[in-house]
Design goal:
single chain; alpha+beta; Ubiquitin-like (UB roll); 5 domains; 6-stranded mixed β-barrel; 4-stranded mixed beta sheet; 24 strands; 16% helix; RlpA-like_sf
C-alpha cells in the first residue's frame, strides 16, 4: 500500500473520532444546561424545625407541599408559620413547632393539655398559672418542657412561738417537717396547741402554735413547825395540863417545781423538804389522860409518761430504695425543702419524685421506719426513693433494694 493511501485512511479515522467527541460534548452541554434551568426554577426557603434552621431548595408551590416533601406530618395543635396554604417564594422563612401533651399537677389536681411551649415557665404562663417565689415547681421554670410538671402552691402560715406571732411562707407539708424547716425545736415539755406533728398544713389549716412549757426548781426557806408532846402525869388531876417545855420553831428548805407556760407561772408543787434547823417540841403534861399523837400524811408524787401510736392506713406500693448522706460529694447539706440535714441528725427523711409522692408527706418505709418526704434528686424519678443516712457506712450497708412504702398523708 502506498504512503498516500495510508495517510488518507488516518485522516478519515481522525474525522470520525472528532465527530463522536463533539456529539458527546454537545449532549453533556445540553444536560448541564437542563439541570441549570431546573435548579434555576427552584425556590430557596429557610425552614426552621424545632428551633434548627436549614436551607431548602424546592419546586413545592405551598408551605404544605414543602413540609410533605420534608416528610413532616403536621398535627392539629402544631404551629406552622406562615399558614399551610401560603405560596412559596425565594427567601420565605417557614417554621414548624410540634405540639406536646403535658400532664400538669397543681396541688395534686391534674389537668392534661397540648402545648408548643418549650420551657416549664412558658407552659405555666400559657396555662394561666401564676407562680410565686415561695412555690415549688418541678422541673424548674427554666428547664425544658417535660411530659409531667408539678406545682405546689405556697401558703402563709401563722406561727405563734411562746406567745410571739409571725407569718411564714411554706408549701403544704406536715407540721413536723415545717418546724424542722424553720429550725423550731420542741423542748422536752413543750406542747402544740390545736395541732399535732402529723397534721398537714393547708390553706384551711395554716396556724401552728408552740406552747413553751418550762419546769424549774425553786427553793424557799420556811419555818419548821414544832409538835406538841403530851406526857401522862399522875400527879395532875384529870383534865388538867401543864406546860413542861415551850415549843420553838425551826427552819426548813422547801423545794418547789414551778411550771411556766410561755413565761408565766401556772402551777407550783412541793417536791422536797429539808430541815436545816430542827424545831423544839412543846411538851405538855396531861393528868392521867392518854392522847393519841397524830402523824402528818405523806404526799405522794405520781409520774406521768407519754405514749404514741403509729398511724394506720395510707397508700401502699413498692419502690426501689437507695441511700445518701448530708456529706456526700457535692452535697450542700440542705434539702430541696430547705431543711438543714446536718443540723438535724435525728431527722428521718427521704428524697422522692414529687410527681409520685408529694413533698411534705409522712411515709413509712420498710426497713427504715417513719420519715418525711422532704428532698428530691436528679436520679430520683418515678417509683424511686433515697433514704437519708448520717454516715457513709450506713448508706453502703443499705445498698439498693426493693422495699414496701406507705404514704400516710
Amino acid at each position: 500500500m502506498s504512503n498516500q493511501a495510508i495517510k488518507g485512511g488516518h485522516n478519515q479515522a481522525n474525522k470520525k473520532s472528532t465527530m463522536i467527541f463533539g456529539t458527546v460534548i454537545a449532549i453533556l452541554f445540553v444536560a448541564i444546561m437542563a439541570l441549570v434551568l431546573i435548579e434555576g426554577t427552584k425556590k430557596t426557603i429557610a425552614l426552621t424545625v424545632e428551633g434548627e434552621e436549614i436551607e431548602v431548595r424546592t419546586h413545592a408551590k405551598t408551605v404544605e407541599q414543602l413540609l410533605e416533601e420534608q416528610n413532616i406530618e403536621v398535627a392539629a395543635h402544631d404551629i406552622v408559620e406562615p399558614a399551610l396554604n401560603t405560596p412559596l417564594k425565594t427567601g420565605l422563612a417557614v417554621e414548624w413547632i410540634e405540639a406536646e401533651e403535658v400532664v400538669l399537677t397543681v396541688d395534686e389536681e391534674e389537668q392534661t393539655f397540648v402545648t408548643t411551649k418549650r420551657t416549664v415557665g412558658e407552659v405555666l404562663e400559657e396555662a394561666g398559672i401564676e407562680v410565686t417565689e415561695h412555690d415549688i415547681v418541678y422541673p424548674a421554670l427554666e428547664e425544658e418542657t417535660q411530659p409531667r410538671i408539678a406545682v405546689t402552691k405556697a401558703i402563709e402560715v401563722e406561727v405563734v412561738d411562746g406567745g410571739e406571732s409571725k407569718k411564714i411562707w411554706t408549701t403544704p407539708t406536715s407540721v413536723e417537717l415545717f418546724l424542722a424547716n424553720q429550725q423550731i425545736a420542741l423542748g422536752e415539755h413543750d406542747e402544740l396547741a390545736g395541732v399535732t406533728l402529723e397534721d398537714r398544713l393547708s390553706k384551711d389549716a395554716s396556724k401552728v402554735e408552740v406552747v413553751r412549757i418550762e419546769k424549774v426548781k425553786e427553793q424557799v426557806e420556811a419555818p419548821a413547825e414544832f409538835e406538841v408532846e403530851e406526857k401522862k402525869d399522875a400527879n395532875l388531876e384529870k383534865g388538867k395540863t401543864k406546860v413542861l417545855q415551850e415549843g420553838q420553831k425551826g427552819k426548813m428548805l422547801r423545794t418547789y417545781e414551778v411550771v411556766m407556760r410561755n413565761g408565766e407561772e401556772v402551777e407550783r408543787n412541793v417536791v422536797a423538804e429539808e430541815v436545816v434547823d430542827a424545831p423544839k417540841n412543846k411538851i405538855v403534861a396531861v393528868g392521867s389522860k392518854q392522847i393519841a399523837q397524830a402523824k402528818p400524811a405523806n404526799n405522794t408524787v405520781v409520774s406521768r409518761g407519754n405514749s404514741s401510736a403509729a398511724p394506720a392506713g395510707g397508700k401502699e406500693f413498692y419502690v426501689e430504695a437507695t441511700a445518701y448522706t448530708p456529706y456526700c460529694t457535692g452535697c450542700s447539706g440542705i434539702s430541696a425543702a430547705g431543711i438543714n440535714l446536718r443540723a438535724n441528725p435525728n431527722l428521718r427523711l427521704i428524697a422522692v419524685d414529687p410527681r409520685v409522692i408529694p413533698m411534705g408527706s409522712k411515709v413509712w418505709v420498710e426497713g427504715y421506719g417513719y420519715a418525711i418526704a422532704g428532698d428530691t434528686g436528679g436520679a430520683i424519678k418515678g417509683n424511686r426513693i433515697d433514704v437519708l443516712m448520717q454516715t457513709k457506712s450506713q448508706a453502703y450497708s443499705w445498698g439498693r433494694k426493693k422495699v414496701k412504702i406507705k404514704v400516710m398523708n
